[in-house]
Write a structure and sequence with these properties.
Order of helices and strands: EHEHEHEHEHEEEEHEHHHEE
Distance between the termini: 29 Å
Number of helices: 9
Radius of gyration: 19 Å
Structural class: alpha/beta
Number of strands: 12
Oligomer: single chain
Strand content: 15-25%
Strand order of the largest sheet: 2-1-3-4-5
């Protein structure tokens, strides 16, 4: 059993992705260290206190495979590989090198956080996260990121990954207006041509599942985007 929030080392040379993963991991309660350098990652792997490494294999200075080998030689800190390599052979290669899980790009940052939690639980117990359950609207809406669960008026919501990503993105800063472009990047973790135009359809579906509270919870700001209409409970 982890006795404190786990610390995740994010090794990713693309700053936007690195910052996106940091935000999602920190919101889930993890401590986060980041670097875009394979050499720096190898150095950090020699330091105590890292509980899991998120490793992009396409690094500019040191091959990601070499960083993964170093991680395996230095101990049993679990490694979740992030990569654009999508063939079955590539996956098998990464797993044979000792990766504990394998996530291909493009990916949902919410999925990555869930995989991190699953790997930590598998290798060493249940990782604790700070303030994983947050409520809104005087307790009417409860979001538990660690359990990937949203409950409205006592009823669990059956949300698709995209709907879940939209709800948690809006709930991350209640009242703040998120543009459709921002929501695409938060939900999908990357820019996807044409996807921005489909956000409205996903919002419509999310509101439908929220029932009578839908239009109050997910508020349209004309010409800009959407915001969460309920405030976070103290």
């Amino acid at each position: 059993m982890w006795d404190m929030a786990a610390t995740v080392l994010v090794v990713e040379d693309e700053r936007e992705i690195r910052d996106l993963l940091r935000r999602y991991l920190e919101r889930a309660g993890y401590g986060v260290l980041t670097t875009g350098s394979g050499a720096e990652a190898v150095r950090l792997l020699g330091e105590p206190g890292i509980d899991l490494t998120l490793l992009d294999l396409g690094l500019p200075d040191v091959d990601g495979d070499e960083v993964l080998r170093e991680a395996r030689e230095r101990g049993r800190v679990p490694v979740v590989v992030l990569t654009a390599r999508t063939t079955v052979e590539d996956r098998i290669h990464g797993l044979r090198l000792g990766a504990d899980d394998y996530v291909t790009k493009p990916f949902s940052p919410t999925e990555v956080v869930l995989r991190v939690g699953a790997v930590l639980q598998r290798v060493g117990g249940t990782a604790t996260t700070a303030a994983s359950v947050v409520s809104y609207g005087d307790g009417r809406l409860r979001i538990d990121e660690a359990r990937h669960e949203a409950v409205l008026d006592g009823c669990s919501l059956e949300l698709t990954p995209t709907e879940w990503g939209l709800l948690t993105a809006l709930a991350s800063v209640p009242g703040r207006v998120f543009s459709r472009y921002e929501l695409v990047n938060r939900v999908r973790g990357y820019e996807f041509a044409g996807y921005e135009r489909t956000i409205d359809s996903h919002v419509k579906n999310l509101r439908h599942k929220l029932g009578e509270a839908g239009t109050d919870l997910v508020v349209t700001v004309l010409g800009v985007g959407y915001r969460l209409g309920w405030s976070r409970d103290p």
